[in-house]
Every structure is written in structure tokens, then in C-alpha cells.
Design a protein that fits this description.
alpha/beta, 39% helix, binds pyridoxal-5'-phosphate
């Protein structure tokens, strides 16, 4: 990730209306804590009014909620939402002018800034509404033949593993599971590389791996995997939903055929902003899921890749156009900009993990180099033992919300009754909040009925995939699917 030295703003956008910002901040807060020593910028301090800490007041989050789940859906600062409102006002003031004349230049600016942020090639970068769409798009663009193998991991995101299953059903390719350990050993990155390469055979055509895993919040060694798979002639698709804005990115150097990433999680853009990044040698084969005018456009001033992806039918794509505003708004909150944000969030995630591990009397489940802006901590076995769909909160997660107003995911992993709690660390979070969670979770656990005495079975969806060969297993077999 490169933090641009000079900021380029969107062309001709009227200034953010001050009244709107004030409205967004008109909430009293409980966010008092550890930020005092942080180098918040004057801009961040300026929005820190009405009892809210800097920079929590830059967000519109409900201050009565202990919001420890930035990872699932992100949260967008008020300033960026105001830019989006302005863009929408422009759209509705003259839809023809906006769609036919303003949209494309704005999109080009957004794409350039995003490419700069992720160290990528703007010619291989296309906006999509979310990584699920991105991963589906990329998987469906690969010419799989019957018997080809697609490797997925046991920590993979359920929706994207499902996309691989769907492609396998349509093409006769086979989904193979690589079982990654949990908890991770001291040399977790090597264990991950070994497990993935152990699942690779001469028939493997593509490996799908998360840059940061969803249920277990692990930063996986994608650089090492990229080089090892390249040597074996196997394509790598990185599901980087959590990576942009959490990890320094240099997609040119990573040089993988396919990458999908989010802008609305850790970059804090409005919802609906995500991207795919495709290496030049794979670009011709990659087509959007939706066919529109680009397919037979006579235009010669833009690549087919751009013409097809930039217009897939009428939509409100203002979230994409706000990506430059999100990059700048976030960078403006902390002295040191994005590198300082990454460092601060990671330090907070590690501190949060210490707080929880101490309260729950468990060891850290992975080495610190596998932690980014989120941390997962194993919990005692779930006495309810229930298999549930990835979008259904567990009883403990529901209790934390209903009795303590804490938003935090408690997924079953790798399979019920084993479970964990995953916390996020964004600029607006304070260490006090993790202490509040530790206290609440200890209290809820002590009120639970005695759990299953046996250790949980280690089987996972990916394990079942390996045993069963051809895809088609239940998506609910594990819970690697929570956002
Ligand atoms: C690793 C991973 N991949 C993909 C996604 C999908 O994101 P979306 O639902 O926005 O498409 C998520 C969402 O949290 C994720 O964590």
C-alpha cells in the first residue's frame, strides 16, 4: 500500500456540508479510554466533540453499542458518507448528465487512487460490489475441465468456498480441501504453506486462499504461497476481503493471477465498494458475471476489460466513486496516515487478544505475525452444540448483544461445538471496550450449562471435501462463513 504524497480529490465536488457533519456527530459517547496518547491530527480532534473521543466522533456509530465487529461490514466515516450524499445529489439532479458524462471520469479517478493504494495496475483493476461477486467472477472466468482440481482451505470463507463448489458442479472440476491447523503452531505460516502444498497435485489448476481468514482472523502467508504455486504452475486466487486497509499491499509485487479485495471493510468506503485485480496474462479471459453493452462496444479508446466491467447496467455506484474520499478521510485522522493506522490497529488487536486470553485463561492461538487488525480467541465448547447457518448468531453472540450491547462475532470453528470469539480493532475502538467484553463473556460463560465433555471433532467442510472428492457438501458443515 502506498500512501500518496499529494491528495487528488474528486473533480468538481462541492464541499462537504458542515451541517451534515455536525448532525452525524450529534451523539454522546462512552468512548473514553486509551486514545489520549495517540497522535490524532488536529482534524480528528476537531470532530471530537460532545464527549466523544478522537477519532470515534469521525464515525456515526451508535455510542451506546460496544462495537467490536468492524471486520464484518466495516463502518464508514461521516465525512465519506457526506461525499456520497453529494454524489447522489448530483446524480439525481440530472441522471443523464451524471451517468453519461460524469460517471466515467469519476470512476477513472477512483480506480487510479485505488490502484495506487493497493500497489496495483489500474488496467487490471475493476470495481465490483463485493468480494463474493469478485471471487465468483474470477472463478467463473477460469476454463476448468473435468478432473481439474480447485484447492480451498478449512479456514476459507463459506460463500467463496460455495462459489468453488458451484463452479465444480458446472465444469466437472473437483474441490479439494487443505486442512489448516487451529490453533496455529509457533511457525504457523510454514504450517499453512505445507498444508496448502500438501493438497496440490498435478491436476490442481487453481488454489483459493484468504489473505486474512474470516472466522480465525489469521494473516496467511500469501507471498510465500504465490511463489511456491508459481513454481508448480498453479494459479492462485487470493480472497483479500480483509486486507486493503489492514495490511500493506503491493499487488504488483505479489504478482498473483487473481486478487479480490474490499474497500468497505478496512478502507472504510461506503458499502458496495470492492474490486478484482487481474494479472495482464489472465485479463482477456476474465468477464463480468453480467453481460452488458461492453461486449460489442465499438469504442477503441478503452480496453474490453474496462468497457465490460465499468458498466454492467444501471446502478448506484457512488460507493466506488467515494474510494478516494475514504482513503483521504482515514489518512487525515492520524499523524502518519495509513501506515500509522495499520500499526495502531494491529497493536490494539494484539492488546485485545492479551486481555481476552488472560480473562479466558487460554493461550494465544497463533503467532503475532499472523495478526492484523482482528484477533480470534478460542472459547470453551458450546453446550448448545447446534449447527447453524453462517448468518445466524450463536446463543453466546446473541446474549452478548441482548444483555450487554456488545457486537462481536462468536462463530463455531472449525465445527460445532468448538467456537471462538473474534474481535476487531479500528481507530474508534478503545482497550476499555475489550475489558468490557472480557467481563461480559466470562459472566455469560459461567452461566452456561456444562458443555460437552469430549473434545470437539476436528472435521471441517474442507476435510469433508477432501474425503468426498467432488464438491457439494453442506455449506453449514463448518462456520467459516461469517462475514
Ligand atoms: C474472507 C472473506 N471473503 C469474502 C467475504 C465476502 O464479503 P461480501 O459478503 O461483502 O461479499 C468476506 C466477508 O466478510 C470475508 O471475510
Amino acid at each position: 500500500m502506498r500512501t500518496p504524497s499529494t491528495k487528488r480529490s474528486l473533480p468538481a465536488i462541492s464541499p462537504v456540508p458542515g451541517a451534515m457533519l455536525l448532525e452525524c456527530r450529534a451523539v454522546a459517547g462512552r468512548f473514553t479510554g486509551d486514545e489520549g496518547a495517540k497522535p490524532w491530527t488536529a482534524r480528528a480532534r476537531a470532530v471530537s466533540n460532545r464527549g466523544m473521543s478522537a477519532p470515534a466522533a469521525a464515525w456515526t456509530l451508535d455510542p451506546s453499542v460496544v462495537f467490536l465487529n468492524h471486520g464484518s461490514f466495516g463502518a464508514c466515516p461521516a465525512e465519506v458518507l457526506a461525499v456520497q450524499a453529494d454524489l447522489r445529489a448530483r446524480l439525481e439532479a440530472n441522471p443523464m448528465d451524471f451517468m453519461l458524462r460524469q460517471y466515467e471520469p469519476l470512476l477513472d479517478v477512483a480506480r487510479e487512487r485505488l490502484a495506487e493504494f493497493v500497489g496495483g495496475d489500474p488496467d487490471g483493476l475493476a470495481f465490483v460490489p463485493n468480494p463474493t461477486t469478485g471471487v465468483n467472477t474470477l472463478l467463473r472466468s477460469v476454463a476448468f475441465a473435468p478432473g481439474d482440481e480447485i484447492v480451498v482451505t478449512s479456514h476459507g470463507y463459506n460463500a467463496c468456498t460455495n462459489a468453488a463448489r458451484a463452479v465444480s458442479e458446472a465444469t466437472g472440476a473437483v474441490v479439494v480441501g487443505a486442512e489448516l491447523p487451529w490453533p496455529m503452531p509457533a511457525d504457523g505460516p510454514t504450517a499453512v504453506v505445507d498444508a496448502v502444498l500438501g493438497a496440490v497435485t498435478p491436476r490442481t489448476k487453481l488454489v483459493l486462499v484468504d489473505h486474512v481468514t474470516s472466522p480465525t482472523a489469521l494473516v496467511l502467508p500469501v507471498e510465500r504461497l504465490a511463489r511456491a504455486l508459481e513454481e508448480r504452475g498453479v494459479d492462485l486466487l487470493v480472497d483479500g476481503a480483509h486486507a486493503p486497509g489492514m495490511l500493506p499491499l503491493d499487488l504488483r509485487a505479489l504478482d498473483v493471477p487473481y486478487y479480490a479485495g474490499h474497500c468497505h471493510k478496512w478502507m472504510c468506503a461506503p458499502k458496495g465498494a470492492a474490486f478484482i485485480h487481474v494479472r495482464a496474462d489472465r485479463r482477456d479471459a476474465v468477464r463480468p458475471l453480467v453481460v452488458s453493452h461492453g461486449r460489442n462496444s465499438p469504442r477503441t479508446d478503452r480496453s474490453r476489460f474496462r468497457l465490460e466491467f465499468d458498466w454492467t447496467g444501471t446502478a448506484d455506484n457512488t460507493a466506488w466513486l467515494c474510494v478516494p474520499a475514504a482513503i483521504d478521510a482515514m489518512a487525515g485522522l492520524v499523524d502518519g496516515g495509513w501506515p500509522a493506522i495499520l500499526e495502531s490497529n494491529r497493536a490494539k488487536a494484539l492488546a485485545a487478544r492479551n486481555i481476552l486470553c488472560a480473562a479466558l485463561r487460554v493461550d494465544e492461538p497463533c503467532p503475532p505475525e499472523m495478526v492484523g487488525s482482528m484477533a480470534a480467541v478460542p472459547l470453551p465448547l458450546d453446550p448448545t452444540d447446534g449447527a447453524r447457518s453462517p448468518l445466524e448468531p450463536s446463543p453466546l453472540q446473541a446474549a452478548l448483544w441482548e444483555r450487554h450491547r456488545i457486537e462481536v462475532p462468536v462463530p463455531s470453528f472449525p465445527a460445532p461445538p468448538r467456537r471462538l470469539v473474534r474481535v476487531s480493532a479500528q481507530l474508534y475502538n478503545t482497550l476499555d471496550q475489550y475489558h468490557v467484553l472480557a467481563e461480559a463473556i466470562t459472566r455469560e460463560l459461567s452461566a452456561e450449562p456444562a458443555g460437552p465433555a469430549r473434545d470437539a471433532p476436528g472435521s471441517t467442510a474442507a476435510g469433508a471435501e477432501r474425503a468426498g472428492g467432488r464438491a457439494g457438501g453442506s455449506p453449514d458443515a463448518d462456520d467459516g462463513g461469517r462475514p
